[in-house]
Amino acid sequence: MNYLKTTSIEKGSAVQLAYQDYGQGQPIILIHGWPLSHAMWEHQVPFLVNAGYRVITYDRRGFGDSSKPWNGYTYNDLAKDVNDLIEDLELDNVILAGFSMGGGEVARYIGKYGTKRIAKAVLISSVVPFMLETDDNPNAVDISVFEGMKEGIAKDRPAFFKDFGKNFVNLEKNKDSVSQAQVDYNWYVACSASRKATLDCVDAFGKTDFRADCKKFDVPTLIVHGDDDAIVPVEVSGKKAAEIIKGAQFEVLKGAPHGVTFTHHQELNSILEKFIGD
Asked: Which positions fall inside the AB hydrolase-1 domain (predicted)?
């Protein structure tokens, strides 16, 4: 495991991001979803490395093996971490891919820092463009859902993640494609994250508006979403993102849940390889 000292400082020390860097070739950065870590990309990393790419995964601050500061969980902070990683590793021609909450980092990075270093963007089961239902964002998610999530986490975080993990992969429907052991491992990863980070990030992914960021996308963009996503419904996110991002390629995985990296990894990997290679 490698560690990057970001430009963010808390109590006199830099926030450190744990990252892994494998392979050679065009760099691909994979940004994990909430409340997991880089470990969620287990089916994608070897596939992409063997396909001839340099694959970089990292743990978002507050999660996995990265620092767990008390503050700094807005998307502006998180996009700054992405920028620090890209600059520190001197990366160019990057394929920037984000899953679920990680899609927000892709969008905010492009919104703040542009695409000078970015070749392509990928949004998988992403929260982009705007999850929260408002007067100008109808047919979205009521704020009570996010407040309920925070209440559940605050009351009994392990119990909340146990149920969340099953819904993440629609376990009852996908027992042939994902094991109970994998769901149990995801629970362990989730519980290893900072309590403060898991709570603050609900506000971040639930209430951040990325619509203006999406309008700044000027690189080829792939959007992949399952039509049976019980966590981030495709009608709220993937479909709307495809309408805003000019020229986006929108792929809907039939019968797929939120956690497509686990249940539909072969189909997802095939779509990624074709998009990246075109």
From this structure: 27-263
Q: Which of 66, 100, 126, 237 is catalytic?
A: 100
Q: Among residues 249, 248, 254, 251, which one has the least CA distance to residue 227? A: 254
Identify the residue whose tokens are 């790419």.
Answer: 53
Q: Is 261 left (phi over 0), alpha (psi -120 to 50) or beta?
A: alpha
Total tally of structural domains belonging to the chain = 1
Q: Tell me, yes or no, if 32 is annotated catalytic.
A: no
Residues 3, 38: contact at Cβ < 8 Å?
no
- Catalytic annotation present for 176: no
Domain with 100, as residue range(s), is 2-277
How long, in residues, is the chain? 278
Tell me which residues of the chain have a pLDDT lower than 70. Answer: none
d(CA 22, CA 53): 8
258 is catalytic: yes
- Answer whether 0.85 is exceeded by the pTM: yes
Task: Exactly one of 38, 225, 258, 264 is catalytic; name it.
Answer: 258
Model confidence pLDDT, tens digit, residues 37-59: 999 999 999 999 999 999 999 99
CATH value at residue 137: 3.40.50.1820
